[in-house]
Amino acid sequence: MAINVNNVYQTVLLILNKEQRGYMTPDEFNKTATQVQLDIFEQYFDDLNQQLRVPQADYDYTDRQVNLDDQISTFKCLGDCDPQADYFELPSEDDFTNNAIVYNDNPQSGQFAFYRIGTLTWEDNTLTYPIEIERLQRKDFYEIQKSEYTLPSEDFPVYLYENKQIRVLPNTITGDVKATFIRKPLNVTWSFTVGIQGQYIYDSGNSQNFELESNEQVNVILRILQYSGIIIRDPQIVQAAASEIQQNEVNKKS
Predict the structure, then answer these.
(1) Are 98 and 122 in contact (CB under 8 A)?
(2) What is the distance between the alpha carbons of residues 54 and 42, in angstroms, rounded to a whole number?
């Protein structure tokens, strides 16, 4: 379940007002909330990499690798790689949602922004099952072609990914390549209309909630408060929020 943007904004305003620490405008909140969501989202991958090297508890709901993968799962996509003359392009559409994929930081309605590539498979209709295409770095991509014993084959294909282009070997694979990939979270937006007294009235129809799971709500609020202390130039808010965030991180990883 996603985090409601209005609940977060009202909580942040309540805390700032209670402590008489100033005010955060909707525009400041939207930019800060979007940055906070992206910070937490990117931290998932560092945390997952760390947890892959740590033995996990064999109990329901406590496996941290599984829990982190669940957090990331919202952003997983799948799409066809369009063939060109001598390479494949990255997917232009997500098969799960039919949303268009863009390669910038400003997706519009019905669009997702690409973040990073995952697994490539060859799914020709003559195959019994999809064949995974192994990713190589440039040096290995060239070296593997120098010996008949290491040449890529249709049973063991490889690819090179550079500059948003996918080059697949052997050259007999000319289509039916699919890619899993991760998209970026949508920008958070607290939309509003202006009342007769000049007050901001929440407009849920044009707002965009956080896409993080609801268990991240406390983390989101603390991080927004940390940024808000910078915006209104209050070091006490920054220090208090940073201390709480640090303690939460220690508890998660200990």
Answers:
(1) no
(2) 20
